[in-house]
Structure formats: structure tokens, C-alpha cells
Write a structure and sequence with these properties.
Uridine Diphospho-n-acetylenolpyruvylglucosamine Reductase, domain 3, alpha+beta, five-stranded antiparallel β-sheet, seven-stranded antiparallel β-sheet
């Protein structure tokens, strides 16, 4: 689209697609477009979509997709808008950093679709919910927040499902890229609960996909949906909500790098036990001067005590151990509150990277020593940084690696590093610090760099697709060529058409 006539026709097409309701589409020339419509999440990555649409039905989404295809726009759905790379806007392309050349933030932004930007399909109107009381299969809309989902499931027969801990994230992205959380070791990922979807494809058709119909679409949606379509409805299996759990949190104010390293070594040895119960979830949060060991055990206090955590990990001060008998209390009692404060709802400047470690590729002791020596000797150039080591495994790994697009069925725990600056763009010194932390472990365990969690994307990572989808990538690339040969559902680090 290069002339005024075709641009006007494209705008008319989008307006018609949303039923002629002017309030259901916003264009670049609208007043306060960035603040009220774009709502950038990661301020480190500026984006300017061509339009934000707010459809109210699957038919309207299909019409928006047809307009985009006809007028050569790219399309991405935005569910909760929590993408670390602002990929719900689909307007950035990160180039590889040439050897010896430092990239600046301005180098990260390239327009897609010429000057037209991309079309965002905001899913906020899709918050439907119902429960089949005979099967306990729930039907949910992709605009439903995780907090509201918990309430609705619990009120519909004391039901629950796995997902993450941020209550304002919406299901559209979360249920299609993974969905890690405290119950995933028992029940599987959030996407493992998905039994069926309604999805709008690149040819603007609306189809149902499950294990018995459109199986290739279903495979792709469960781990790579942003590259293949827009889900308008999920049918998910649910579980009986637990009625008893023990939540624990211990703080360690350790002085030397060696003391900190010993704690991480002890934690890794504990969670790597082959027979560790799936009821146990653990998260280690590392700051410059403090480490927090926190998590939840879904069982009795007697069973929890048998784990002997307080003796295995003697804290510098008494920890907090709470017995919880209410499911909503278990999921809303501040677990990983530190993470939410830094990368929760408020837009800010931040950057993140991830590595995955398996039972066969644990971190060597010497690399843990080097990791804390690096932290001790290197200036982060920001006070807002932390590292998490999050236990996974269990039921997640019981699913075959090729059953869904999600490609990390062998990961035992994730390493994630987050840096933020509430005052302005991430500095080069902070990028260097972050990359250095990552490199200490990636060089010690090269296999760990073959894993990157799509929910924690690194926009600067070259060849990210291989790390996101691993051995499932070739199949996804072939499906992309079949289902979306024009790359309508473009994502800066999305699945590409097989060449």
C-alpha cells in the first residue's frame, strides 16, 4: 500500500470489518494513539502499529484478517499486552548484532509492511466463560484474565487449572505459548489443559482444532499460535482445586560469593532428585545481596515437614511457612511477588533472557562459583535486576516432545534474568551485565542455550526460533508454508515459511 487511495481503502475495510463502529478501531492519526490504544508494555522497544482493532466476534476477526491480507498488512493478536518484546504489536524486527558492533535501541526498530505498520487485534471483548458440569470442560475466551479465570473456575464447581502467577495476564497468549506456574508439575502446562480451540486462520477461515480435527493446526496453536492464527475460544480440561497446601519463603542474607554459590548448589541437588514429589514447587530468586527461596507444597504440613527444607537450607532469619486451606488463597498469596513488582502491569524499560537446564545438563559447581564471582565484580548499572531459578519437570515432562509445538519437555528448571530501569532505556552497561550473566552459564553448559522460553523472549537473540521450538521447528515451518504462506501472522521471532 503506497498511495493515498489504497490507504483510505484499507482504513475503510477495517472499519467495515468491525461493523462500522468507529470506537472499535484506532488509527495512527487518532488523538493520544500511543497512550490510549497502543499501550506499549516494554518501553525499551517502541512500536507504532498501523491500527488497533477491537472486534467483538470471530466473524469480525476473520474480516480484519482478510483486510490485512488484501492490503498487505501483518497481523498479531493482543490478549493482555504483556509481551516482553511487544510482539502483540508485531512491528519490530530485531537484527543480528554484527561482531564488534554495539547495537543501540534505535537499531532495534524496523517497520514492517512498508510504512503501514501492522494490524493489532485486541481480544479484550472475548471474555466468555461456561462450564460443562458433566465433563468439567470449561469454555473460556482469550480476553479472560488469569485472576478472573481462577474465580470463574472455582465458582463453577471448585475447579482449577495450571497457569502462571500474574493475575492480570490474559489467557490468549498464555495458553498458547506455555503457561508455567506452581501447579504445572502436577497438572502440566497451561497449554496442556487445552482440549479444543476455535481459531481464525490466515485465509480468514474459522475452524475448530483438537486431537480429532485439524490436528496440525492444534499442534501449532499449542506453543506457536502467534505465527498461525488467532484463537477466539478455548475448551480446557480442569482439575479439582486442592484444599490443602503449605507455602514457604526463606530469605538468605549471605555475604560472600562462595556462600551464595553453596546455596544454589544445594538447591540444584535437591530439586534434581529423581523421586522428588510432583506436589513440590520451588523458586529461587537471586538479587545482588539477597537470595529468596520460596514455593508451595500441595499437601499436608506433615508431608511438607518430611522434606526437611529448613534444615537443608538454614536461613539467616526465620522464614514464613503458611498452611493454606483455600485454593484462591493459595494462588493469590504473594508467591513470586518480587517478579510481579518488576515486570507486572506497569510499562517500563526492561530486558530478559532465559536458559533451560535438564537432569542431564545441570550447572557444574565451578560455573555456579563463576556466576557469583561475576555478579560480585561487575557493575549492573541498575538496581532493578534479579535472577530466578524455577523448578519445572513433573507432569510437563510426561508429555511427548512432539505432541505440541512447545519444545522443552526435558527441562527441569528455567534460569531467567530480568533487568529493568524505571527511569529510562536500558543502558549498554546493563545489557553487557545481563549478557555476561547469561554467558557464564551458557558457555559452561552449551545445551542450556538451546532452550529459551517463549514467554520470556530475548528480542536480540539470533536464531531464536531454534531455541524457542527446538526439534519441532522444521514441522512448524512446513505448516507455516501450508497455513500462512504470505506470513500474514508475522512475529519478529516467529515461525518462518519453510524455504
Amino acid at each position: 500500500m503506497g498511495n493515498t487511495t489504497s490507504i483510505a481503502a484499507g482504513r475503510d475495510c477495517l472499519l467495515s470489518a468491525v461493523g462500522g463502529h468507529a470506537a472499535h478501531v484506532a488509527f495512527q492519526d487518532h488523538l493520544l494513539y500511543q497512550a490510549t490504544a497502543v499501550e506499549t508494555y516494554n518501553l525499551n522497544i517502541p512500536v507504532t502499529p498501523a491500527a488497533i482493532t477491537y472486534p467483538q466476534s470471530a466473524d469480525e476477526i476473520a474480516a480484519v484478517v482478510k483486510c490485512a491480507s488484501d492490503y498487505d498488512y501483518k497481523v498479531q493478536a493482543r490478549s493482555g499486552g504483556h509481551s516482553f518484546g511487544n510482539y502483540g504489536m508485531a512491528l519490530i524486527k530485531v537484527v543480528d548484532e554484527p561482531a564488534g558492533i554495539q547495537m543501540t535501541d534505535s537499531d532495534l526498530v524496523l517497520g514492517l509492511g512498508g510504512e503501514n505498520g501492522a494490524i493489532v487485534v485486541d481480544m479484550k471483548h472475548f471474555s466468555q466463560f461456561s462450564m460443562d458440569e458433566s465433563t468439567f470442560i470449561a469454555t473460556i475466551g482469550p480476553g479472560t484474565t488469569l485472576g478472573n479465570l481462577d474465580l470463574k473456575l472455582y465458582n463453577a464447581g471448585n475447579r482449577a487449572m495450571s497457569h502462571g502467577i500474574c493475575p492480570t495476564i490474559r489467557t490468549g497468549g498464555h495458553l498458547t505459548m506455555g503457561g508455567l506456574g506452581p501447579t504445572a508439575r502436577q497438572w502440566g502446562l497451561a497449554l496442556d489443559h487445552v482440549e479444543e480451540v476455535e481459531v481464525v486462520l490466515a485465509n480468514s477461515s474459522i475452524v475448530r482444532a483438537s486431537d480429532t480435527q485439524n490436528q496440525d493446526v492444534f499442534f501449532a496453536i499449542k506453543g506457536a499460535a502467534a505465527s498461525f492464527g488467532i484463537v477466539t475460544e478455548f475448551k480446557v480440561r480442569t482439575e479439582e482445586a486442592p484444599g490443602l497446601a503449605v507455602q514457604y519463603s526463606f530469605q538468605f542474607n549471605l555475604g560472600t560469593p562462595a556462600e551464595k554459590a553453596k546455596l544454589v548448589k544445594d538447591w540444584q541437588a535437591f530439586i534434581a532428585q529423581e523421586n522428588l514429589t510432583w506436589k513440590f514447587y520451588s523458586n529461587l530468586v537471586i538479587f545482588d545481596g539477597q537470595i529468596i527461596l520460596e514455593g508451595i507444597f500441595f499437601g499436608s504440613k506433615k508431608e511438607y515437614d518430611a522434606l526437611d527444607l529448613e534444615k537443608k537450607f538454614p536461613a539467616s532469619e526465620p522464614g514464613t511457612v503458611l498452611v493454606l486451606t483455600d485454593w484462591l488463597g493459595m494462588i493469590g498469596h504473594g508467591l513470586e511477588d518480587t517478579i510481579l513488582k518488576l515486570v507486572g502491569d506497569s510499562p517500563t524499560w526492561f530486558y530478559a533472557k532465559s536458559l533451560g537446564f535438564t537432569p542431564r545438563t545441570l550447572i557444574p559447581d565451578i560455573a555456579i562459583d563463576d556466576f557469583f564471582d561475576y555478579i560480585h565484580k561487575t557493575n549492573a548499572d541498575t538496581l532493578a535486576w534479579f535472577v530466578t531459578l524455577s523448578l519445572e519437570g513433573g507432569a510437563i515432562n510426561a508429555v511427548p516432545a512432539d505432541a505440541t509445538a512447545y519444545g522443552h519437555r526435558d527441562v527441569l528448571f528455567w534460569f531467567q534474568v530480568f533487568v529493568a530501569n524505571p527511569l529510562g532505556p536500558i543502558s549498554q552497561a546493563t545489557y553487557n551485565f545481563t549478557n555476561g550473566l547469561y554467558d557464564v552459564l551458557a558457555q559452561a553448559v552449551p545445551e542450556s542455550a538451546e532452550h529459551a522460553y517463549l514467554g520470556c523472549p530475548d528480542p536480540k537473540m539470533p536464531g531464536a526460533q531454534h531455541a524457542y521450538w527446538r526439534n519441532n521447528l522444521p514441522r512448524l515451518e512446513e505448516l507455516k508454508a501450508d497455513l500462512d504462506p504470505k506470513d500474514v501472522f508475522h512475529n519478529p521471532q516467529g515461525v518462518q515459511v519453510a524455504s
